[in-house]
Automatic annotation (TrEMBL), chain A:
Record-linked SUPFAM superfamilies: ClpP/crotonase
Organism name: Halarchaeum rubridurum
EC code: 3.4.21.-
This protein's name: Peptidase
Matches recorded under Gene3D superfamilies: 2-enoyl-CoA Hydratase, Chain A, domain 1
Peptidase S49 domain boundaries: 99-145, 162-235
TM regions (residue ranges): 12-32
Automatic annotation (TrEMBL), chain B:
Domain of life: Archaea
Composition-biased stretches (Low complexity): 345-363
Region span, Disordered: 32-60, 315-363
Listed name of the protein: Uncharacterized protein
Origin species: Halarchaeum rubridurum
C-alpha cells in the first residue's frame, strides 16, 4: 500500500467517523428519551364545580381525549364537587365507566365528592380521600315550579306548565334514587358496609368515615392517587398532564346570575336562561328555597 | 459526476422513500387493526328498567258520601291562621255536603284579637251552632279559654277533629353579594292546646320509612290498629310526612304506622297516626284529606270514616244556635262507635260554665 493510498483510507475513515458522530449526536436525544424518558402520561381530569350539562361536557370530552390519546395510560379524577344536575351526573358516571375499560381510573377527592360528584367517582377503580374531604350524599331531589296554568298564559294541557303531577315527580325521583343507590351498591359491592336503605339516608361522610364504610378505599393525597394510577397502568416513569375543568363565569361567582328575588335558584344555576322547569338534581346543599321540593331521601 | 451515476443515486433515493412510506402505512394499518383502545357501551346494572321504575300506589275510587241521617253542621276553623283551607280538604267537604250536611268555615268573631273575650265568645257562639268542629294546622295557638270552649263542646257531645302536620316556620331569605337577610313568618302549627285537654299530643317530627313506602320515604303506610270506627274497612292508608299522635289509656289508636322511624330520634317502632278519645279524633296528617291524597290506597275509606265520625255525634248541653237547621239533642240516632254516653265529672264542671254562657247567649 502506497502512502497515497494510506492517507486516502485515513481520510475516508475520518469522514465516516465525523458523519457517524453527527448522525449519532442527532439521534442521541431520541434514544436518550426512549431509554430514560417517561413510559407514558397520567392525565389528571378535574371536576371542580357544580355539575351542569356544560361542566359535565368538558369532563366527558377530557375523558374521551384521554382514551384516544395513545400517550395517556391512566386517568386520575380530581373531584371537588357538590354534584348538580341528575342527567349530567349519570353521563359522567357512564363516561368514567367507559374510560375504565381501557385504562386505570383513580379518583382523588380533593374537597367534596357529594351526590352527583360521588356518582362520578364511584365507577373509578380506587377512591382516595383525606380525613377532611367528604363523600356520600347519595340522593336525589326535584324542584317543582308552581303548579297550574300561570296567569297570562294559554297552554295545551294541564301538565304543560309544571311538566307532571307531584305524584309523577315523586315516582321519577324514586326511579332516579334506585338508579343512583343501585349503581353505588353495584360499584362498591365488595367493600360497602352500608345497606341500600342506609345509603338512601343520603348522609355526607368525612373521608375517614367514608373509608370505614367502604364508600372510599384509602386515605391519601392526589400524588398518591397519581402514583397508584401509574402503577396500575404499569408505568414506572410517567408524565402528568392536567386537564382543567371550566371556571364558572365571573357573574355567577359574584352571585349575579341569581333570580330576580336575589336567590341563586335551581333555575338560575341549572336552567335554560330563566325558564323554570322541574329540575332533577343530585346535589348536596341548597341552591335556594324552591317553591316546592320532593326529596328522595332523609338528608339529601 | 456523470449522468448514469446521478440517475442511479436518484433511483436509490426514490426506492428508499417509497419503501419508507409503504412500511409506515403498513404499520399504521396494522396498528389500527390491533385497535387497543376500542370501548364498548359500559354495563350499568342498576339501569335495568325492570327494576328501576317504581310501581305506582293504587290511586282510584271515590270518597263515600257521609251518612245522611240528619243534617248536621260541621264548622271548620279558619280563624287561627290555619294552613289547611277548603281547597286542601275538598274531598271531606264534598263527602259531607253530598250527604246533606252543612260545612262552614269559622273566620273569627270580627275581633282582631283571638284571645280577647270577644274572640272566645264568638267561638262559643259558633260552637253552639255546630255539631262538629274541625281544627287543622292552626298557626296561632289556641288560648286557654278557647281550648276550654272546644273541650266543653266535645264533652257536650260535639265531635272534634284535630289535624296536625309537622309544624313549619316559613322563612323568607333574600341575598345579594353574599349578604342575606331573613324574616321569619308564621308557618303552620298543631292544635296541641285542644288535644292536651283530651290526653292527646301531636309530635313535632315526621315519620318516615326507608324501605316500605309509597315511593317516597315520607309517604308511610298506615294500617288499622284498633276497633275504632275510623279504621272500619281500611286495609292500608298512605300518609305524607305524618306526625305521631301520643295518647294515654283513655284514647285508642285507630290507625298506626308500623316499622317507621321518627325523624328527630331516628327510633323505629309503631306509631299511632289516627287516635280517638271519645268525641275527639286526632290525626297527624292532612294530606290524606287533599284532592291529591284522598284516593291513594284506602285513603278514601278513611276520609269517609272521618266524615261519618263528624256527623254521628249526639250533642247535648246546648240550646242550639241561630244558625238554622241545627239538630236538637235526642233527635238523631247515634252512629259510629265510641260515642260518649256522658261526660266525666271534671268535664261537667267546665261544660256547665259554658252551658250557662251559651244559654244566656241564646236566650
Amino acid at each position: 500500500m502506497s502512502d497515497a493510498d494510506g492517507s486516502r483510507v485515513g481520510r475516508v475513515v475520518l469522514v465516516g467517523a465525523v458523519i457517524g458522530l453527527l448522525v449519532g449526536a442527532a439521534v442521541a436525544p431520541t434514544v436518550w428519551d426512549r431509554a430514560s424518558g417517561p413510559d407514558g402520561s397520567v392525565a389528571v381530569v378535574e371536576l371542580h364545580s357544580t355539575i351542569t350539562s356544560d361542566t359535565a361536557s368538558t369532563v366527558i370530552d377530557n375523558l374521551r381525549e384521554a382514551r384516544q390519546n395513545d400517550s395517556i395510560e391512566a386517568v386520575v379524577l380530581d373531584i371537588d364537587s357538590p354534584g348538580g344536575a341528575a342527567a349530567a351526573s349519570e353521563q359522567l358516571y357512564l363516561a368514567v365507566k367507559r374510560t375504565k375499560q381501557v385504562m386505570p381510573v383513580v379518583t382523588s377527592v380533593t374537597g367534596m365528592a357529594a351526590s352527583g360528584g360521588y356518582y362520578t367517582a364511584v365507577a373509578s377503580d380506587e377512591i382516595y380521600v383525606t380525613p377532611a374531604s367528604s363523600v356520600g350524599s347519595v340522593g336525589v331531589r326535584a324542584t317543582i315550579p308552581t303548579a297550574g296554568v300561570p296567569a297570562g298564559e294559554i297552554v295545551t294541557g294541564p301538565d304543560k306548565g309544571s311538566t307532571a303531577t307531584r305524584t309523577e315527580v315523586r315516582q321519577r325521583v324514586e326511579a332516579l334514587r334506585r338508579a343512583f343507590v343501585g349503581s353505588v351498591v353495584a360499584e362498591r359491592n365488595d367493600s360497602l358496609a352500608l345497606s341500600a336503605s342506609e345509603l338512601s339516608y343520603a348522609k355526607l361522610y368525612s373521608g375517614a368515615r367514608g373509608v370505614e364504610l367502604g364508600l372510599a378505599d384509602s386515605v391519601g393525597g392526589i400524588d398518591t392517587a397519581i402514583r397508584a394510577a401509574a402503577s396500575d397502568a404499569g408505568l414506572s416513569e410517567y408524565r402528568v398532564v392536567r386537564m382543567e375543568s371550566p371556571t364558572p363565569s365571573v357573574l355567577s361567582q359574584l352571585g349575579l346570575s341569581a333570580d330576580a328575588d336575589g336567590t341563586a335558584s335551581a333555575s338560575a344555576t341549572f336552567g335554560n336562561q330563566g325558564v323554570e322547569t322541574v329540575h332533577y338534581l343530585m346535589l348536596h346543599g341548597s341552591v335556594a328555597a324552591p317553591k316546592t321540593e320532593v326529596v328522595a331521601n332523609a338528608s339529601a | 459526476m456523470r449522468a448514469p451515476e446521478l440517475r442511479r443515486g436518484l433511483g436509490a433515493f426514490v426506492a428508499v422513500l417509497l419503501a419508507a412510506v409503504v412500511v409506515t402505512a403498513g404499520a399504521g394499518v396494522a396498528s389500527d387493526a390491533l385497535g387497543g383502545r376500542d370501548t364498548t357501551q359500559p354495563d350499568a346494572p342498576a339501569y335495568d328498567t325492570s327494576d328501576l321504575l317504581p310501581t305506582p300506589v293504587d290511586d282510584g275510587g271515590a270518597v263515600p258520601v257521609a251518612d245522611a241521617g240528619t243534617q248536621k253542621t260541621v264548622i271548620v276553623d279558619a280563624a287561627h291562621g290555619n294552613a289547611v283551607g277548603r281547597a286542601d280538604m275538598q274531598p271531606l267537604v264534598n263527602a259531607l255536603v253530598e250527604g246533606g250536611h252543612e260545612v262552614r268555615f269559622y273566620t273569627g268573631g270580627g275581633s282582631s284579637s283571638l284571645i280577647s273575650a270577644s274572640g272566645t265568645s264568638a267561638l262559643n257562639e259558633t260552637l253552639d251552632d255546630a255539631d262538629a268542629f274541625v281544627v287543622a294546622d292552626p298557626a296561632a295557638a289556641y288560648s286557654s279559654s278557647e281550648a276550654d270552649a272546644v273541650s266543653a263542646f266535645a264533652d257536650d257531645g260535639g265531635r272534634v277533629l284535630l289535624l296536625g302536620d309537622t309544624p313549619t316556620t316559613a322563612t323568607s331569605t333574600s341575598s345579594l353579594l353574599g349578604l342575606s337577610t331573613s324574616a321569619t313568618t308564621a308557618g303552620s302549627g298543631q292544635p296541641n292546646a285542644v288535644a292536651a285537654r283530651h290526653g292527646l299530643s301531636f309530635n313535632a317530627d315526621y315519620l318516615y320509612d326507608m324501605t316500605e313506602n309509597a315511593n317516597n320515604f315520607q309517604y308511610v303506610y298506615g294500617s288499622p290498629s284498633g276497633e275504632s270506627g275510623l279504621a272500619a274497612g281500611v286495609d292500608r292508608t298512605v300518609f305524607d310526612a305524618a306526625v305521631a299522635v301520643t295518647h294515654g289509656d283513655a284514647a285508642t289508636a285507630a290507625i298506626s304506622a308500623e316499622n317507621v322511624s321518627r325523624e328527630s330520634t331516628r327510633t323505629t317502632g309503631t306509631y299511632a297516626v289516627a287516635v280517638r278519645s271519645g268525641n275527639v279524633a286526632a290525626i297527624g296528617d292532612t294530606w290524606f284529606l287533599s284532592p291529591d291524597g284522598a284516593t291513594v290506597a284506602d285513603n278514601e275509606v278513611l276520609v269517609g270514616n272521618v266524615a261519618d265520625f263528624l256527623v254521628s255525634g249526639t250533642k247535648t248541653g246546648s240550646m242550639g244556635g241561630s244558625g238554622g237547621p241545627t239538630v236538637r239533642p235526642g233527635a238523631l240516632t247515634t252512629r259510629g262507635t265510641g260515642a260518649l254516653g256522658g261526660s266525666s265529672g271534671a268535664s261537667d264542671a267546665s261544660g256547665a260554665s259554658n252551658a250557662t254562657n251559651t244559654t244566656n247567649a241564646s236566650a
